[in-house]
Every structure is written in structure tokens, then in C-alpha cells.
Amino acid sequence: MKRSYPSGAEKRKKQEESKKFLAKLPKLTNFFVMPGPADNDNNANTITTVSIAASVEELPVAAGADSASPGCSSDIAANVTCTAILQDEEDPSTAAAGKKTSAFTFSDSDNNDDYVYDEKDDNSISNEQLMSTSSHSDQCVTLELEDDPALWPKHLTDKERCSIVQRGPVQSKDRIYPKNQEGRRFTNSNYYLQMKNGEKIKRSWLVYSEKNDCVLCFCCRLFGNREKATQLNADGFNYWKNLSAHLRQHERSAEHITNMDAWRNLSQKLQTNTAIDQVNQDLIALEVNRWKEILRRLIAIVNYLAEHNLAFRGHSDKFFEAGNGNFLGQVQLMAQFDPVMREHLRRIQAKQLSDTYLSKNIQNELISLVAKCTTDAIVERVKTAKYYAVIMDCTPDLSHNEQLSVVLRIVNCELSKGVSIHEHFVGFLQALDTTGKGLCETFLGQLETLGLDLCNCRGQSYDNGSNMQGKKQGVQKRVLEINNKALYVPCGSHTLNLVVGDAAKSSVTSISFFGLIQRLYNLFSSSVQRWSILKEHVKNLTLKALSTTRWECRVEAVKAVRYQLPEIVKALTALKEYATEKRDADVVSTAESICKELQKWPFCVTQDRSPKTTCSSKQIHIEDTIRTTKIQLQMSIHHCCVKTAEEK
Fold first, then answer.
1. CA-to-CA distance for 332 and 605, rounded, in angstroms?
2. Concatenated DSSP letters of 315-346
3. Considering 137, 211, 234, 454, which has the largest number of Cβ atoms within 10 A of its Cβ?
4. Whose CA is closest to 388, among 477, 466, 450?
5. Rounded to an integer, what distance in angstroms lies between the CA atom of residue 249 and that of residue 75?
6. C-alpha to C-alpha distances, 205 to 51, 190, 217, nearest whole angstrom
7. Contact present, 524 and 530 (Cβ < 8 Å)
8. How far apart are alpha carbons 131 and 355 in whole angstroms?
């Protein structure tokens, strides 16, 4: 019986003929631009990419894409609102290079229309190249966006989209991917398309979200139609069991092809600065840089005036008018030598600008910003030192508001500079409640605002007011209840000043002596004519009023009388004669009375000893301060040791 099927020899013969026929046919890669010799690898698993020699419009549409409407591409392109989107016609430089508009590879499968996009190693735009793109365009400014696509805004702006395209997709392959409930997880092999001939094609568009444990399509997330959102361009796909099939289906879709083309074209245009509105973007970038330079100069003026404690504004807020203040005056001075500020003033005078950034509100805002930066720097230094001490004092201002000044004292240890002590003023706080409880709450609120921990406070120093140093209700007691390591040390200078002041008030001779000096100053300072008479006779030291708060400052008032007593007596005599001519009985009586008191023996002895006593007050102050501090530290250490022993 004759066989109805071919024999094995016939089958082998047909196979050999088929192989010879296929060998004579041109290879598929002949139609594409292949990588250079430096990028080739003889390994079978080498990842190769090719670029098609035709635009996307000339490609055959994949099976299953026939159902897409002809307006699909235009709908997707309408959603791409980035101002740097490329022109519809082809770039001449691209056409000269062989019309390479997108990286593209065919799949070695049964259907010739099974294809996916991919980057070509030689022609792809790397992340480093994208980040080094010229910054002349305003869209080329890199925004602070995360690499994780799940952290991107739901609706991207033009600048955000361009910044992401510049940076490119980030495929981290070093992480360990978590498993889901089924024990499956994403693997690095999913970043590649496995061909039937063993070749691997890189899926550069696939990115992994560590936050949501899912994968997304980079180009569809950026340029996809949000109304037709899928898992790969919206929330992500994490059904790992069918991931390979889902990726192959997605990369064949018409929408993905269109988005891939938009991504590649935008990357190329941003790299070469050939966007459709590049001229406008260059002008915008120049304007942005100009305003940055102006603000840099204005901040420098603010710093200068603040460092020298100068007022900012005057009676006028217009340029080139008298009394327009130090701020505008500095701007006018800088404009004489600086071309940037000169151009800015020219535009203001020509009324070409509606916003000048020179108004009083902008000045206040700049002052606030500089103050915030300064405070942040101080807080950073305090946090670096970790431990600190606090110094506080209350005083009323001219508007009759009680202000609490806060100073932080730290020890800065640096290897290059050694150990140094710094005191930083951190602000005035309005004290609505001047009791110990109110001041303590105000201070704790300031620490919370600065982000400092009271547990790191190791010392506190205030004046001798009962609301500050009170042992039961004072600020120091309330702070010690929270942190028992914040030892309280009273202000030695304030204590010494109070002791000396109270001692002076206990003596009738001392009261009469300093009262006479104050009367002498009041007599001459109450009139311009009287002060001129004093200056005619007293050439060196002038009379000074007594300080009511600082005892040591009274030495200057005593010196003027001690070393120039004869000249002062002559001035009083001349003032008496002048008042007699003017028939001013009050001045004649006061001058004669003071002149007699200055020439009496008790006053001469007192004023001779007072400067010596006062001059030595510095030495007394230093010795007493050291002695008092040692005693207080010893008592504090003893108290802490006893308390620790009791707790144990």
C-alpha cells in the first residue's frame, strides 16, 4: 500500500531547501540602523535595539488596533499641553540622519505586526544628557519631583512634564521586590522582552513604583489620555500572574505607540532646544534670570541695612526725591555702577513695569525672609551643639508693651577652631502675662516654634525679679520641674549692681553727693545758653547724668567733676553773673547753692574717693561673680547628687 505522507528523508530534504531559501532572503535587521562595533556583543543574550527608518505614521497598524478611531492620535496629542512639544513637520536634522523618529523593534514571532518600542543605545537620550540640557529654556528648569511615578501629581503641568522627560525613566534594579498574598512579585526580567530567538529587548518605558508596589508606563503616564485611563497609565498594574501578557498587549496598542512617539520627540526637542516656542522660552528664561539678579541685589541691601541697624524708609517712597529712605537710596547708588539695577530703574521711570519689588510691603517681606533664614541658621547651630543655656529678660518698649528677650548660649566645638562660646539672640517675645507662669509658657512656646527640646537645656540665667527667680512660682522653678538639669544661675552683674546701689542709698553722705552731681548736670543741660557757658570753661570732660540702672556708668559722671572741679566752679560763677543780668532768681539761687556745696570739705573728700571705688568695681565684680558662681554651682551639684541618691 502506497504511503499518503512524505517519508523522513523527504521531510529532511524539504527542511534543508527551506533553510537555504531563508538564508538567501535579506535579514530583517538590514532594514534598520544597527549599533556600532563598540556596542555589539557576541553573547546570545545581548540586548540590541534598532531604530526604524520611517515615521510612526508609515508603520503597519497591529492587529487589534483596527478598532481605534482615526482621531485617536489627535485626541492624545491634544492632551499633550507642554509648550515644548515638537512641531508637526519633521526636523531637518532628523531627516538628514535618515528620518529616525522613534526607537522601534519588531518581535520575532509568527505575526509580523507584533512589535514594541524601545530605546537605541547609540541614539537614546540618557538621564545625564537630559539633565545637562541647556537651561536657556524655562521648561528645562529641573523641578523637585520624585522618581517614583506614584508620587507625581495627578495632573502634571507643562514644566513638570518637561522636567520628568529630561530626567527620563528610572529603573532601579538593586531593590528587593516584595511578594503579594499569592507569593508572586515583580522581577527585573520584566524590564525586557524575550524574543523567540533568545534576543532581549529592553522596555525602557516600564517603571516600577516602590510606594504602591506596581508598574506603570512612563510615556502613557505623561502623555496618555486621562479619560481613557488604564492601569498602566493611572494607578498602576500589580497583578503579577498575568504581567507578561498584559505588557505585550499594552506595548502593541495604538495609544502606547502615539505616546511613545510624543515622548521621544519631546526628549529630542528639549535636548536640541528646537521646541516650537523656543524663542519665547529663551526670552522668558532671560527675564527670569534678570529678576533673580535684581532680588539678589535687594537682599544684599537688606542685609547691609540690618547689620548696621539703619532705618529702611523715609518720608517719601519715590525715587530721586529727598528723604526717600536708606533702602531706595542704596538702590539709586547701586544703579550708578551696576547695569542690572540701572536697567531696572530705567524701566521703572519709563513705566514699563507694574511690579518693581521696591515697595514697603516687599521690603517687609524681604526682612522677614532674611530674619527667618538667620533664625534657622541659629537653630541649626544650637542643634549641632545639642546642649544650650537660656538667658531672658523683660523690658517695656516705647509703645508700653512688655518684651521678653531670649538669648541662647552654646559651646561650639570644632577641630579646626577649638572650643568657643557663642550667644545668639533669637527674638523679642511679647509678654502679655508677666507672671512666672505666663513668662514660662511664652518661653516654652518659642522653643516649640524653633523646634528645640527643653531636655537639652543645661542652664538658665535671669535677673533678680521675683517672677524670674522665684523659688516657688518663678520661671526658673517651673523650668526645673520640667528639666532638673537646667541649673539656675542668677545674673552676677545685676546682683552686684543691686548690692552697690542699695549700699549707696543707705548712706546720707552718698545720697547727698550723687544728688549734687545730678543737680549740677540738670542746671547746665536745661538751656543751650547755660551749656555754652559750661563749654567755655570746661574743655575736656563734659558733665553726664547719673545712670539709674547701671552703677558702674556713674564713674563717668564723677570723673568730670573730680578732674575739673576748678573749671566747673568758674562756670557756675559765670552762669550766676549771666542769670543776674537776665534777672533769673531761680538760676542765681541754684548756681550759688551748688557752687558753695562743691567747695565744702565733705564733698571734696567724697569725690576724691568715689572714682577709686567705682574704678575698682570691675575687679570686685569679676571676683564676686566668680565666687558666687562657684558657690552656686557647688550647691546645685550637691543638690542634684542628693536628689539622685534619694531616687535610687
1. 60
2. S--STT-TT-HHHHHHHHHHHTT-HHHHHHHH
3. 137
4. 450
5. 21
6. 16, 11, 6
7. yes
8. 33
Q: Which of 236, 231, 273 is nearest to 136 (CA)?
A: 273
Extract the C-alpha cell encoding 282. 529663551
Find all residues with CB under 8 Å of 268, minimum gap 6, and list them.
86, 91, 94, 125
What the block records as the C-alpha cell of 183 is 507569593
Distances in Å between the alpha carbon of 423 and those of 197, 390, 456, 463? 74, 9, 16, 17
∠ Cα 502 505 506 (to 5°): 90
Q: Cell 519633521 appears where?
A: 90
- Grid look-up 522582552 returns 193
Q: 326: number of CA atoms within 13 Å, CB side?
A: 11
Cell of 174: 538593586
Q: Where are the beta strands (DSSP E) in 37-133?
A: 104-106, 115-117
**Cell numbers given for 450:** 524653633
| Cα–Cα distance, 171 to 207 (Å, whole number) | 6
Asked whether 479 and 486 are in contact (CB, 8 A), the reply is: yes
CA 406/CA 426 separation, integer angstroms:
6
The pLDDT, as a whole number, for residue 71 is 36
Instruction: Count CB-CB contacts under 10 A for residue 607.
Output: 19
**CB-based contact 79:225 (threshold 8 Å):** yes
Percent of the chain residues past pLDDT 90, beyond the cut: 18
Helix axes 339-349, 278-307, angle to 10 degrees: 100
CA proximity to 466, closest of 456, 476, 453, 457? 476
Amino acid at 417: K
What is the three-class DSSP state of 207?
strand
Q: By C-alpha distance, which of 349, 315, 344 is closest to 331?
A: 344
DSSP H or E segment with residue 410: strand 402-414
Higher confidence at residue 410 or residue 636?
410
**Region 30-34 average pLDDT:** 48
CB 186 within 8 A of CB 243: yes
Greatest C-alpha distance within the chain: 165
Residue with cell 505586526: 113
3-state secondary structure of 409: strand
Contacts of 113 (CB under 8 A, 6+ apart): 60, 61, 62, 63, 252
CA 132 to chain centre: 24
Strands (E) located in 220-319: none
182 CB-side CA count, 13 A: 8
Sheet holding 402-414, edge to edge: 418-430, 402-414, 388-396, 457-461, 487-488
Note whether 546 and 517 are within 8 A (CB): yes
Q: Is 41 within 8 Å of 190 (Cβ atoms)?
A: no
Q: Which helix (H) or strand (E) holds 193?
A: strand 192-194
Q: What is the pLDDT of residues 576-589, one digit of tens each?
A: 888 888 888 888 88
Element (H, E) at 495: helix 492-505
Q: Which helix (H) or strand (E) holds 460?
A: strand 457-461
**What distance in Å separates the CA atoms of residue 479 and residue 456, rounded to the nearest whole number?**
12
Mean pLDDT of 320-330: 89
Q: What is the pLDDT of residue 119?
A: 36
Q: Is the pTM of this model over 0.70?
A: no
Q: Residue 420: in which H helix or E strand, if any?
A: strand 418-430
User: Which of these, 564, 561, 545, 562, lies nearest to 553 by C-alpha position?
Assistant: 545
How far is CA 164 from its chain centroid?
23
